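Discussion board: Methods & Data

I've been asked by a reviewer to show the raw model output for two of the constructs in my manuscript, not just the figures. I'm not sure how much to include, so I'm pasting the format here to get opinions. Each protein appears as its amino acid sequence followed by a line of discrete structure tokens. Is this the kind of thing reviewers expect to see in a supplement, or should I convert it first? Here is construct A:
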Amino acid sequence: MNLDITKEELLKKFGLNVKIARMKKGLTQEQLSEMMHVHLTYLAKIETGKINMSLGKILELAKVLNIDINKLLYIE
């Protein structure tokens, strides 16, 4: 991982990973937010890199999407 990355860049890349994983599962933001019991705007802000997601929620997201958590956390 590039240690020169800024927090903003990290959040955007993580958000993109979330969006890609969601779309690969054929889910809308609304569907995924309901499955995770979070507000739609919270998920939208995650996908656009505007806010952090807790480690607990990242684990929950990986379970809901049935993917390896490393795929969500992978940053080139």
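Construct B, same format:
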Amino acid sequence: MTSGILHDASWLVTDRSVGASQGAFAFNNLAVHVGDDARAVARNRTAVAERLGVPSVVFARAAHSNRVARVSQAGPDVPGVDALITDQADLGLAAQGADCVMVALATVDGWIAAVHCGWKGLVEQIVAHTLRDLTDAGADLRGARAHLGPSICADCYQVDAQRAEEVRMVVPEAVVVTSSGVGVDVRAGVQKQLRDHQVESSADPRCTAEDPGLYSYRRDGVTGRQAIVVARRSA
């Protein structure tokens, strides 16, 4: 795992190195919808919450959409959304991925967000929708900061002409001509969309498809999910 600080919030990015899952999901799968043993996933999630120092973590069940949910208390996975926001302390928010970008975000006035974004998220502008919902909820985005977890690189994420054009129409910086074709650099696209809203960000440079210590759907098909988790502790 890697970890860091955004204002008064803490984030961590999980990997697959240590946990209760077995087989294709070994070892630290955090997703309940991929076919892994539910008891193993529960143990892995408990360990993540303990590592972050919070009693519970709420997970988004991504749908490659621009839908955002505000969370005020512990509960089950939130289906059909790609971002979670809260101003509650001691409540972790998690976005999962196995190639897509996972984002932790914090504002200076105590709001946090966890965001999942793939190529569809770039087109649907999940980042902009998350920032809009934060503003509508009363957050001050001045000085907001974000961290991006590991994701697939453009060399490993080759796409057809139609998909490349869809992305290019929204965020041309994410479309990259590589030695083997045209790829989408989702990380670069997310960082551009954050910059468009004056949000500074850092990013984990690892490629999920190239790093065997990370889950990659593009590489493996049946596999688990890592997560980025963010929380603000009250003490």
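Answer (T.O., handling editor elsewhere):
This is acceptable in a supplement if you add a one-line summary per construct. For B, something like: The helical segments are 38-52, 119-124, 126-137, 161-170, 186-195, 217-220.
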